[in-house]
Amino acid sequence: MKKLIFIIALFTMVFSVAAFAGANALVDQRCGSCHDTARVYNKKTDKAGWDAVMARMVKRGMKISEDEYKQISEYLYTM
Ligand code: HEC
Known about the structure:
It is a single chain. By secondary structure, this protein is mostly helical. It has one domain: Cytochrome Bc1 Complex, Chain D, domain 2 (Orthogonal Bundle). 75% of the residues lie in helices and 0% in strands. Helix 1 packs across helix 4 (66-77). The relative contact order is 0.14. Bound molecules: heme C. Heme C binds next to helix 1, helix 2 and helix 3.
């Protein structure tokens, strides 16, 4: 039983790391097309601040799918 819990915990960890790396690559692709991604990584703000940034980038002409929007937002909140 303990082994099973360990395996599940391990899978969860690997999966979250993979999701995180995926979102990171997505930021490089989607946010790096108009400006340096340093602009993204240097910014320190909260959830509401990132929502405002994301909404503004869409206004500036950013084209991303709803799914990518969600992934990037969730990633930004954790920075
Ligand atoms: C279509 C072009 C475009 C794309 C794609 C884009 N941006 Fe921007 N971004 C801009 C422009 C233009 C500015 C400068 C004007 C401004 O600040 O609104 C800017 C400025 C910024 C700033 C600095 C201003 C601030 O509020 O601190 C941040 C942070 C930012 N972008 C984040 C992002 C993120 C995160 C993404 C990807 C999800 C992204 N941008 C994608 C065009 C873009």
